[in-house]
Design a protein that fits this description.
four-stranded mixed β-sheet, 44% helix, 113 residues, globular, alpha+beta, Glutaredoxin
Length: 113
């Protein structure tokens, strides 16, 4: 397994995901989403795995940009905005090769073991 956890340093669910893998002694790479973001290839891979941009956006966030994106029809424009501002993504984003999850999903991760 090659686990990557993209998260925000102050995100409670990101810390829970890291703890989940540490408790099971599964090695993972932790990446601060706000500081480093994602490469274009990683972003596309995650989008395909989670089923589109609407599943990647943190709709409960307090950012005015998220409020505006609720009224955007063009998925490509949403993708560009989220790629340029990774803080709009729901975290943690956990990747295992071509598989990915958004949010805290231990039931999916258990199947990866």
């Amino acid at each position: 397994m090659n686990i990557q956890i993209f998260g925000k340093s102050k995100c409670f669910d990101t810390k829970k995901a890291e703890r989940y893998f540490k408790e099971r002694r599964i090695k993972f790479q932790s990446i601060d989403l706000k500081a480093y973001g994602m490469s274009g290839w990683e972003f596309d891979s995650v989008l395909r795995a989670v089923g589109g941009i609407d599943n990647l956006i943190d709709w409960e966030g307090k950012s005015p940009e998220i409020t505006l994106m609720k009224y955007m029809d063009d998925p490509k424009a949403k993708e560009d905005k989220v790629f340029d501002n990774p803080a709009l993504m729901k975290t943690p984003i956990v990747r295992n090769g071509k598989q990915a999850t958004v949010g805290y999903c231990p039931e999916v991760w258990a199947a990866w073991e």
